[in-house]
Automatic annotation (TrEMBL):
Positions of the UniProt region annotated as Disordered: 1-68
InterPro entries the UniProt entry points to: Phasin (IPR018968), Phasin_subfam-2 (IPR010234)
Pfam families for the chain: Phasin_2 (PF09361)
Taxonomic source organism: Plantimonas leprariae
Compositionally biased residues, Polar residues: 58-68
Protein name (record): Phasin
Alphabetized NCBIfam families for the sequence: phasin_2 (TIGR01985)
Compositionally biased residues, Basic and acidic residues: 28-57
Residue ranges constituting the Phasin domain according to the UniProt record: 48-143
Length: 155
């Protein structure tokens, strides 16, 4: 029995020698692999945490831009409505003081022309403002994407 055990131990030693495995080195190798794995996990966690923080900052910045832009658009729309209402009331006052039908037609023609010009200018201004706001709202996301792309290239 003891001889079989010795033979088994010798066979294990022969197999270890043949594969180049030293039992004393196995613990060290396992420890190194575990340590390397933990370092890689820490690095991956750190990158993931940084990316999440960056995404949060980008979202906060975008939401702030959306809020400010919404206020800006609302203010401009209210200003346009106020201006149009003032023009309308001014036109009514002029119509009320008209002395003849010809004057009413002239006032109405002038008012319609002025309204078309004003509406066209307001539409152009709102379009320009909307485009500018869209650019501003997309800017944090574009910058974050660019930073992420640069970081990925540098890895």
């Amino acid at each position: 029995m003891a001889e079989m055990r010795r033979a088994g131990e010798q066979a294990a030693r022969n197999a270890q020698d043949a594969m180049g495995m030293d039992p004393a080195r196995m613990n060290e190798t396992f420890r190194e692999m575990t340590q390397r794995s933990m370092e890689q996990s820490r690095e991956a966690y750190s990158r993931m945490k940084s990316a999440a923080e960056e995404a949060t900052r980008t979202l906060e910045s975008t939401m702030e831009n959306v809020h400010q832009s919404s206020l800006q658009l609302s203010k401009r729309a209210i200003d346009a409505m106020r201006h149009n209402a003032d023009l309308g009331f001014s036109h009514l006052e002029k119509l009320m003081s008209a002395k003849s039908f010809a004057e009413v037609v002239e006032l109405q023609t002038s008012y319609v022309r002025q309204q078309i010009e004003t509406s066209t200018d307001q539409a152009k201004e709102m379009q320009s403002l909307t485009q500018s706001i869209a650019q501003d709202m997309l800017k944090p996301g574009r910058e974050a994407f660019q930073r992420a792309s640069d970081a990925a290239r540098n890895m």
